[in-house]
Sequence to fold (159 residues):
Amino acid sequence: MKFSARIYKIGVNPYVFLPVKILKKLFKDAGKEKGNIPVKLIINEKTFIQNLVRYSGKWRLYLNTPMRKAAGKDVGDTTEIDIEFDGAERTTPMHPKLKLALKKNKKVHEIFMQLPPSRQKEILRYINFLKTEESVDRNIKRTIGFLSGNERFIGRDKP
Fold:
């Protein structure tokens, strides 16, 4: 489903509104009208995955920097987007070293499992994108300290 939309900005986040007809189709395809709606979009022949989210009473499609660069557009410009519901599974794997550390400490594992899914994903992604084994080891130690309530991690106070 193709549409044109002006790029707006709320806070530091650029976004577009979707036409009502397209929103209704996405809701139908997703089988829901609440929560994030996973979508796949094409901008200037480049494919991206994103979530359609409701914020401040309105559904918004946030456009990150790579998306806007692909479009050659920025806030205030109008861009063309081809969008569809994305039913593919979106999971973030747990780093084997983090899995082992959590297995060794059941209390910390329980705390991790009680975190909101978005916080779990934030931790998993942070660990997975580290470049060296030393960084992984150091940050898993910090993760365990964070979950134990002993230190800050990824800019967050203890859970």
About this structure: The chain has a mean pLDDT of 92. The chain has two domains: 2-85, 96-147.
